[in-house]
């Protein structure tokens, strides 16, 4: 299988406790991926072949947005820490049925983002950030440059004034992934269209 045959569902970020539990940061919105026992696949590094592993049990850690899971054969903290950074995968054929206006994260990454009112390309989707409403992190083609600050008065003999540093260009922007702001998601043509509210794409 090549990379297109797999769906990433999460990344192991740390050991949980002393008995081999693993903390997993999810890249899937389907809790059953981490709660229901069964076979998953583990990719220890970007170059490694995925290997099957049995998920024995899992639970959500309240308030953290992550899961704690138990994998067969991982029995202590050292073995758990050795898997830090490994990815959990499932076959691409194991996609859950989606409702209308639901999307797999992997299908959204890399889509071109266009400003619907002007037709201009803004950039590409670099990440999906879970929140009350998910946020699209867009890597901008042209960084936003903040307005220049008001000129500072010349320093006086009585007081040396600290000069502010020029603002750094903003290279990404977060766009709420809601229908009103992202009305068009065209997976086959690898593009989305956004209609952001005033100020969202303006530097401050």
Automatic annotation (TrEMBL):
Residues 106-200 form the Ribosome maturation factor RimM PRC barrel domain. One of its GO terms (biological process) is ribosomal small subunit biogenesis. It is found in: Cytoplasm. Residues 9-93 form the RimM N-terminal domain. Signal peptide: none annotated. One of its GO terms (cellular component) is cytoplasm. Its main location: cytoplasm. Pfam families: PRC_RimM, RimM. GO terms for molecular function: ribosome binding. Keywords: Chaperone, Cytoplasm, Ribosome biogenesis, rRNA processing. Residues 146-172 are annotated as: Disordered. SUPFAM superfamilies: Translation proteins. Belongs to the RimM family. The PRC barrel domain binds ribosomal protein uS19. Binds ribosomal protein uS19. NCBIfam families: 16S_RimM (TIGR02273). An accessory protein needed during the final step in the assembly of 30S ribosomal subunit, possibly for assembly of the head region. Essential for efficient processing of 16S rRNA. May be needed both before and after RbfA during the maturation of 16S rRNA. It has affinity for free ribosomal 30S subunits but not for 70S ribosomes. HAMAP family: Ribosome_mat_RimM. This is Ribosome maturation factor RimM.
């Amino acid at each position: 299988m090549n990379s297109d045959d797999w769906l990433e569902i999460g990344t192991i970020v740390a050991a949980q406790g002393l008995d081999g539990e693993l903390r997993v940061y999810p890249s899937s919105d389907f809790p059953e991926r981490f709660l229901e026992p069964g076979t998953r696949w583990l990719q220890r590094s970007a170059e490694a072949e995925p290997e099957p592993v049995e998920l024995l049990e899992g639970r959500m850690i309240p308030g953290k947005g992550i899961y704690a899971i138990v994998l067969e054969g991982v029995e202590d903290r050292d073995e758990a820490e050795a898997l830090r950074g490994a990815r959990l995968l499932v076959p691409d054929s194991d996609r859950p049925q989606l409702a209308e206006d639901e999307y797999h994260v992997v299908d959204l990454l890399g889509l071109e983002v266009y400003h619907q009112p002007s037709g201009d390309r803004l950039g590409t989707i670099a990440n999906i950030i879970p929140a009350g409403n998910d946020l699209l992190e867009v890597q901008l083609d042209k960084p936003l440059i903040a307005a220049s600050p008001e000129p500072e008065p010349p320093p006086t003999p009585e007081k040396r004034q600290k000069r502010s540093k020029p603002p750094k260009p903003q290279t990404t922007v977060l766009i709420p992934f809601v229908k009103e702001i992202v009305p068009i998601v065209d997976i086959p043509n690898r593009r989305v269209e956004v209609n952001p509210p005033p100020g969202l794409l303006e530097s401050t």
